[in-house]
Design a protein that fits this description.
heterodimer; A: alpha/beta; TIM Barrel; seven-stranded parallel beta sheet; two-stranded antiparallel ribbon; about 45% helix; B: about 130 residues; Alpha-Beta Plaits; 4 helices
């Protein structure tokens, strides 16, 4: 089984570890691929990132993807315009407006921690149904559980469990990511899927959330990067020259 | 007068020590699983700190009642200080919970650590 972790931050964004530290730790833990997420600050950043990623890919020997995480609606719209230039589009959940927009936008791949800094779970049946329709994966962020303790952790777990319940009911894809900002926050894929079972998923479903769901996202990206792809649901099948 | 309570009677002491429960029938015994793990860290690990940290995390997260269901046992003899590998014994029904609990351990004192699961088996021999 191939495991992927599609949400982690390096020192390039808000993280504390270098790209290489993250990549080599992920490789040791048994991941096949990872995605470095960053915040968008201009087109030149994308090129700089890809140059760095290429070097580390060859040195460490792991698949590396580049993702951008939109922090607000304006950023999300900006990233949708540049969708073909990078691999994964993440939307930083927590804000209800952004949660809604992300669920309703097929270009978005992952809605990260929808319950972030909220008292409620950040999603309801309408949003989850939209996420299922548009194939937007809802993230279970392990860091959210890791950094808190006692009362706050209990509340976070309750909110994540609520989202898991809704996603299961409406068939929205669930993805487990570390959300790490340091290489010490990365976790063994088996640990992450085992933890998901305590949130109300069965073991097979939780293993799929860390292997099959990210794999599907990556396959979709490959399609999207081809010249035939125009927008979700629209592809050039045959060119007719008159 | 000598009796078993006074502690003077050597023979009765010996008998008490030798008195053992009859082994349970195989169908009544709990099936155990052994989880082999490796710790990724920059600094050396002290076994006592590790044991303390595992117990504290489990008691914090699952509570005393929850942890009691795991039949948890950290096997001291199988701790390898050089390779930073060890084995935890639990029952077959609580493997996922024990593995999940290990993921919540972030530090041993000031040392930051990551648990890597090397294997899960029904016998120790198969883990070696």
């Amino acid at each position: 089984m191939n495991f992927f972790d599609l949400h982690m931050h390096s020192a390039f964004s808000e993280g504390t570890s270098s790209l290489e530290q993250l990549a080599s730790t992920a490789k040791t833990l048994g991941y096949k691929g990872i995605c470095f997420s960053s915040y968008f600050s201009g087109n030149e950043v994308i090129k700089k990132f890809y140059d760095e990623i290429e070097k580390i890919k060859q040195k460490v020997g792991i698949e590396i993807f580049l993702g951008f995480e939109a922090r607000n609606v304006k950023e999300l719209n900006m990233l949708i315009e540049r969708r073909k230039k990078f691999d994964i589009l993440l939307a930083r959940g927590g804000d209800l407006k952004l949660n809604r927009l992300a669920c309703e936008t097929p270009e978005v791949d992952i809605l990260t921690h929808p319950e972030f800094e909220r008292n409620d779970s950040g999603l309801n049946h309408v949003l989850v149904r939209a996420a299922a329709k548009n194939d937007v994966a809802i993230e279970i962020n392990f860091r959210e559980v890791l950094i808190y303790s006692k009362k706050t952790r209990a509340k976070v777990i309750a909110n994540i469990s609520r989202n898991v319940e809704l996603a299961k009911k409406y068939g929205a894809p669930l993805i487990i990511c570390s959300g790490a900002i340091s290489h010490y926050e990365l976790r063994d894929p088996l640990v992450m899927s085992s933890f998901a079972t305590t949130l109300g998923m069965n073991l097979k479903y939780s293993k799929d959330s860390i292997s099959k769901v990210p794999e599907n996202i990556l396959n979709e990206i490959k399609k999207r990067k081809s010249e035939k792809w125009i927008m979700p649901g629209v592809e050039i099948i045959k060119k007719v020259i008159k | 007068m000598d009796n078993a309570w006074s502690g003077n009677n050597k023979e009765s002491d010996k008998m008490n020590r030798e008195e053992k429960l009859k082994i349970l029938l195989p169908t009544l015994r709990k099936k155990s699983r052994y989880i082999k793990f490796q710790i990724i860290s920059d600094e050396p690990i002290v076994y006592e700190d590790l044991e303390q940290s595992i117990w504290n995390t489990f008691l914090d997260f699952f509570g005393e009642r929850g942890t009691s269901d795991f039949s948890l046992w950290i096997i001291k003899n199988l701790w390898n200080e050089k390779e930073k590998t060890g084995v935890i014994k639990c029952n077959n029904k609580s493997v996922t919970q024990v593995v999940a609990g290990l993921g919540l351990i972030q530090r041993l004192g000031d040392t930051r650590i990551i648990f890597k699961i090397l294997g899960i088996s029904g016998t120790v021999r198969r883990l070696r």
